[in-house]
From TrEMBL:
Residues 344-418 form the DEP domain. Residues 123-136 have a biased composition (Low complexity). This is Glutaredoxin. Residues 1-26, 62-136, 172-191 are annotated as: Disordered. GO terms for biological process: intracellular signal transduction. It comes from the Eukaryota. It comes from Arabidopsis thaliana x Arabidopsis arenosa. Residues 62-71 have a biased composition (Acidic residues). Pfam families: DEP, DUF547, Glutaredoxin. PANTHER family: ELECTRON CARRIER/ PROTEIN DISULFIDE OXIDOREDUCTASE, ELECTRON CARRIER_ PROTEIN DISULFIDE OXIDOREDUCTASE. InterPro entries: DEP_dom (IPR000591), DUF547 (IPR006869), Glutaredoxin (IPR002109).
């Protein structure tokens, strides 16, 4: 067909697809065609035509929802005008114009020729087949319009969700672009097709960073071997740290046995080596030696041969074994709690769902039923049974559903701690069932927790504490022991702890709790996920639930309001307010780590040196980029922590700078304080990097 005579050149104005569909739809000329055919062909049965349905555009769209078209020609019979889909969508989308090609123009021209032939056929000898083909063409065109809108909507909704969750900002930060910059993506084309597919763009957006991460993971993947490497270490050993780094550089996976965590392995090491000097490295059953011996093997070239042997040979029976679950763990040892044995028998007999004060409470029991059970089980008078029940409540086995009293004989409802809906759904340290051992003092539990925490930091973090190997922590025996220790916290007494003990315990617990939440839920990608992590990931400690926010703002900051929240963590009647410190401890902000890159490095804190260690943490954080000051331009670049929690450091920006300057180098600190006397500094807060510190 000659391009000069193409109806496309006669288009005077653009019409919407809906108007054109109404003008050209076969619905308007079916009746006229049927009357004409009755006059010419009276022998044809009229019912054959009456059975032909009138095609509605909406029905066509539903029946052909899965069909896709590359370009659409919409024909107008009156005036022989043709409007393409590209022309219809050109007002809303400039991308479609760039997707045209010579090959697609040939297809459009061919389609136009066929459409003109179809129209000429209708005018000369209209038939049921012609009507059917016209209806089919309009069905495909209508379905293509619907699919086009659907695909565009998917891209828009996906982009919106990524912006709300913060994912798009993280992606753009990784690429060095801003949120308002549009990423240009070449449209994928295949042979014989010129269609732009928005789904491929969506897939590219999702997989851009994933492909980079996969390449990095492949490069750092450890060597696969049948053998086993055992590394004996102890806490605070510098040569042990060097040995770990050496094995990491060689991409050799090893099992670490810390003899301070596993005392029985110290005796094993003495039998094998004649002493307890560490580090000691074993390749299967062969004793390689210390870090110096490893370096010597590398220089002589023998290390590669030993690694090849590890890859091919499995460890024999006489090789040192990895620590087994629960080895040398005091969590499963101790005197039996007789009250816990009573609860184990009582719980299945009295617990069920009940109504109380126009409300429905699940898994609870009446005070009178508890007294009846204790009277029968322990052969006690009713008054004696009430005393036993109060003793159980004071030991935090159960509590009133509305916290109205400790225990009363009557129609009051009580609930066991592990049956509380908040505890069972949000607390991640509740044991499975009742622990039948007597609860240990909180000071002893804190000491064991500190020992395991220190072992995890030395084995699975970088030397500066800024990077964490979460994957190795998740499968380690040290982390499994930590999970067993925190199960002992649900019935401990916290009110008698001293200030130094509270600071060290809750700081160490906060940092391990953040690691635990990342291992369970993953690193939060946006604001909503971060809020869930800080507010909904909880431990039950001393019969009460504590989230990360409750520990930071309620305990360590002396029950101060968290940022962007008008309410204090603990109310006036909240039992947890008795545990809170009397005033805010601002230096704790340089010790709390929530798994971000802008946060301080991880370290372990002890009650005896807590104030000294907090001063060191603040000094290291501010001197390593937390505060940057230009005395010539009167400019200060400071971490966002001082913006979010500025009230803990001072009532104005000048007071905040004075507080922060005390942790800088003495000479620089004096110069800054002299400038602050008569000079106004411009204070700019650093952008916080929420990416994972892995």
């Amino acid at each position: 067909m000659d391009m000069e005579s193409s109806p496309k050149h006669n288009v005077e104005e653009m019409k919407s697809a809906e108007i054109i569909a109404k003008e050209v739809s076969p619905k308007h000329n079916v009746k006229e065609i049927e009357e004409k055919k009755e006059e010419e062909m009276k022998s044809v049965d009229i019912e054959e035509f009456s059975r032909k349905p009138v095609v509605e555009i909406e029905d066509m769209m539903e029946d052909n929802e899965e069909e896709e078209m590359e370009s659409i020609d919409i024909h107008e019979e009156e005036g022989d005008k043709i409007v393409t889909m590209d022309e219809i969508m050109s007002v809303d989308s400039d991308d479609d114009d760039s997707e045209s090609s010579a090959e697609s123009n040939n297809e459009i021209t061919k389609a136009r020729e066929e459409s003109v032939d179809d129209r000429s056929g209708i005018s000369h000898h209209s038939s049921p087949d012609t009507n059917s083909s016209t209806s089919s063409a309009w069905t495909e065109k209508a379905a293509a319009i619907k699919n086009f809108v659907r695909v565009k909507s998917e891209v828009a909704v996906h982009t919106l969700i990524r912006r709300l969750s913060g994912k798009l900002s993280v992606d753009n930060a990784a690429h060095g672009t801003r949120d308002d910059e549009v990423k240009s993506v070449d449209s994928p084309k295949t042979e014989g097709k010129s269609m732009w597919n928005p789904l491929s763009y969506l897939k590219m957006m999702q997989n851009d960073d994933d492909s980079v991460d996969r390449e990095e993971d492949v490069a750092l993947e450890p060597v696969v071997m049948k053998g086993r490497i055992i590394l004996y270490t102890r806490l605070g050993c510098e040569e042990c740290r060097e040995c770990r780094l050496f094995l990491h550089e060689k991409r050799l996976r090893y099992v670490e046995i810390n003899i301070d965590i596993y005392p029985s392995r110290k005796l094993e090491l003495e039998k094998i080596c004649g002493g307890d000097v560490v580090p000691k490295v074993f390749f299967n059953e062969e004793l390689v030696g210390s870090f110096k011996e490893l370096k010597g093997l590398e220089e002589s070239g023998e290390l590669e041969e030993k690694i090849k042997h590890l890859i091919e040979e499995a460890p024999p029976r006489d090789a040192p074994l990895p620590p087994f679950s629960g080895e040398d763990d005091a969590s499963s040892k101790g005197p039996v709690d007789e009250l816990a044995l009573i609860v184990l028998k009582m719980k299945p007999c009295v617990v069920k769902d009940r109504f109380y004060k126009m409300r429905r409470f699940k898994n609870c029991f009446l005070g009178s039923e508890a007294v009846d059970f204790l009277s029968a089980d322990q052969s006690l008078e009713r008054d004696g049974a009430v005393e036993v029940a109060r003793k159980l409540a004071s030991q935090l086995f159960f509590q009133h559903v509305l916290e109205e009293n400790l225990f009363e004989d009557g129609n009051h409802l009580y609930r066991f701690l592990d049956d509380d809906p908040v505890v069972s759904s949000q607390c991640h340290n509740i044991p499975r069932g009742i622990i039948d051992l007597k609860p240990r003092p909180i000071v002893e539990i804190a000491s064991r927790l500190r020992l395991v925490y220190r072992a995890i930091l030395e084995a699975y973090t970088s030397p500066d504490g800024k990077h964490v190997d979460y994957r190795s922590i998740h499968g380690s025996e040290e982390f499994a022991r930590y999970l067993r220790i925190i199960q002992e916290l649900h019935r401990v007494e916290l009110e008698d702890m001293q200030r130094e003990e509270k600071l060290a315990f809750f700081i160490n617990l906060y940092n391990m709790m953040a690691i635990h939440s990342i291992l369970v839920w993953g690193h939060p990608a946006g604001t909503f996920d971060r809020t869930k992590m800080f507010m909904d990931f909880k431990y039950v400690i001393g019969g009460n639930t504590y989230s990360l926010s409750a520990i930071q703002n309620g305990i360590l900051r002396g029950n101060q309001r968290p940022m962007f929240n008008p309410m204090k963590p603990f109310g006036a009647k909240d039992k947890r307010s008795k545990v809170a410190l009397p005033y805010a401890e601002p230096l704790t902000h340089f010790a709390l780590v929530c798994g971000t890159r802008s946060g301080p490095p991880l370290r372990c804190f002890t009650p005896g040196d807590i104030d000294k260690e907090l001063m060191e943490a603040a000094r290291d954080f501010l001197r390593c980029g937390g505060l940057i000051v230009d005395l010539n331009d009167k400019f200060a670049y400071i971490n966002q922590i001082f913006n979010w929690y500025g009230v803990d450091f001072g009532n104005s920006e000048v007071e905040v700078l004075k507080h922060a300057s005390t942790f800088l180098e003495p000479q620089f600190s004096e110069a800054l304080l002299d400038c602050l006397v008569d000079t106004q500094f411009k204070l700019v807060y650093q952008k916080y990097d929420w990416r994972l510190n892995n």
